[in-house]
Amino acid sequence: MMTMTMTMITRAIRASSSSGMWIHALPPLFFSSLSDNNNNNNAFHSKSQKFDTLDEALSCFNGMLRMNPPPSIVDFAKLLTSISKTKHYSTVLSLSLQMDSLGIPPNIYTLTILMNSFCHLNRVDFGFSVLAKILKLGHQPNTATFTTLIRGLCVEGKIGDALHLFDKMVRKGFQPNVITYGTLMDGLCKVGNTSAAIRLLRSMEQGNCQPNVVIYTSIIDSLCKDKQLIEALNLFSEMLTKGISPNIVTYNSIIQALCSLCEWKHVRTLLNEMVNSKIMPDVVTFTAMVDALCKEGMIAEAHDVVDTMIGRGVEPDVVIYSALMDGHCLRSEMDEAVKVFDVMVCRGCVPNLYSYNILINGYCKIRRMDKAMLLLEEMCKKGLIPNTVTYSTLIHGLCLVGRLLDAITLFNEMVASGQIPDLVTYGILLDYLCKNCHLAEAMAMLKAIEGSKMDPNIQIYTIVIDGMCKAGELEGARDIFSNLSSKGLHPNTWTYNIMIHGLCKRGLLDEANKLFMEMDENDCSPNDCTYNIITRGFLRNKETLRAVQLLKEMLARGFSVDVSTTTLLVEMLSDDGLDQSVKQILHNFLI
């Protein structure tokens, strides 16, 4: 068994890194149970294991190994706990390996710490191997042991397995505590199963373990993210009724949801409640408000919030300044956006990639590509690496001002720098290649996409179909369209509209009508554009009765005759060769 444990620890150390993991602390209950029961009077044993650096902890560990008599296993457990708190989980595995190789017998606490480290390194399978060792050595697992495994399963998205383990734990007589329940409810909320989390909450209330603010906040936050604000507010009221005081996280969840719905009156009410409860708004609270106000175009109000924030001693961060810049960019107020950028720098807040992307996008929208390209140069000089969004925005801006060759050059620079173009990038270039009659280059790019690891989506193929139809390559467009199903793709309304328009231009009305009839069958309902396109097709080809039928159907569905169709109808009414009775029918659609 020792050999098996050493092997799996070694494998985990090689495969794992402590960075980038989803971090959860060990349950406080578990830490509190690590009392020093050793009667040894060595002063070392009575000290709390606290270290400023990892090197200090490792030095202490090596010192413990040299002591004679050696410290108790409880002292080793305290040391491993301290290291685990600093999130150096791979180090915990390494030290456990050394202890095992030196014959230092583990206890339930050191094994649970080891299990916790495996779970944090996304190796819950090794965590279960530790459980097997616990049982093999005759130790009794406790609630903390099972909670650790449940957390590991939740982090890996194995909610079904976590629920199964929870049920098994209860059946074997172990009482889940508030941390166990909270861990499982948080896992359920994170996968979007808020209703199951609420059922578990009700089940918890029936027992001896009562929910706390963390549990209520987890569910309230999930309900807010699911846009179930009424249910969230009801749970919030229930929480208050039970005498459980909300914390800043609870308030922030609800305020963010209210801001997204522009319920500013209720936001003010909740802010007043917060302050009266001695809970001061933090940067998260203000960020939610500023972001929502900017998106609604209420930029002056957003600036007022930032001023209030600074007045309360809360320093705006790069996210808030970026939201303000974005608000000005949405209104094409680039001078104001740059002023915000400058204020941010003056206040010691360092701009990030997102900040630059916002300004670049703003300049591209108003076609100031000189300014946008200068920003690209500036961010590179500051050590920021442009990402796919940066390049895609600039490529689109260059295409927008007719600089297609410069866009292609930038695309090549992007690839050379190691940035992988995504389907948005390819879609932009394909669209403008087609619009500029570079169909051969567009088809070559399509083949390159198909030959890569990316799967072209329906938008990519629709762009190419549109380009082919406009270039008179109807047969090629038809081939691509007919092969969509073999690629696992389904045409959308835009795709159908393009094909129907291409067929109508060729006078292939029967085929166009067949596609039109097929749309509803394929759960892709025609829109007003579809009706106007096919109606004009029939009108231009003298199929007036069918056109009239379509016009009636279009109006019955609540769609309107567009400008192009209206112009065509006016032209037909001016045609002396058209039958007067037909003219009268067509005239009715212009009234």
Give me a quick take on this structure.
Helix content is 70%, strand content 0%. The chain is an all-alpha fold and 591 residues long.
Would you write up a description of this structure?
It is a single chain. The protein has 591 residues and is mainly α. Helices cover 70% and strands 0% of the residues. It has 34 helices and no strands. It has helices at 2-15, 28-32, 43-46, 54-66, 73-85, 89-101, 108-120, 124-136, 143-155, 159-171, 178-190, 194-206, 213-225, 229-241, 248-260, 264-276, 283-295, 299-311, 318-330, 334-346, 353-365, 369-381, 388-400, 404-416, 423-435, 439-451, 458-470, 474-482, 493-505, 509-521, 528-540, 544-556, 563-573, 580-588. Helix 23 packs antiparallel against helix 24, helix 25 (423-435) packs parallel to helix 27 and helix 27 (458-470) runs parallel beside helix 29. The N and C termini lie far apart (88 Å). Residues 1-6 and 12-48 have low confidence and may be disordered.
List the helices and strands and how they pair.
Elements: H1 2-15, H2 28-32, H3 43-46, H4 54-66, H5 73-85, H6 89-101, H7 108-120, H8 124-136, H9 143-155, H10 159-171, H11 178-190, H12 194-206, H13 213-225, H14 229-241, H15 248-260, H16 264-276, H17 283-295, H18 299-311, H19 318-330, H20 334-346, H21 353-365, H22 369-381, H23 388-400, H24 404-416, H25 423-435, H26 439-451, H27 458-470, H28 474-482, H29 493-505, H30 509-521, H31 528-540, H32 544-556, H33 563-573, H34 580-588
Helix pairs in contact: 1-6, 1-8, 4-5, 5-7, 6-7, 7-8, 7-9, 8-9, 9-10, 9-11, 10-11, 11-12, 11-13, 12-13, 13-14, 13-15, 14-15, 15-16, 15-17, 17-18, 17-19, 18-19, 19-20, 19-21, 20-21, 21-22, 21-23, 22-23, 23-24, 23-25, 24-25, 25-26, 25-27, 26-27, 27-28, 27-29, 28-29, 29-30, 29-31, 30-31, ...
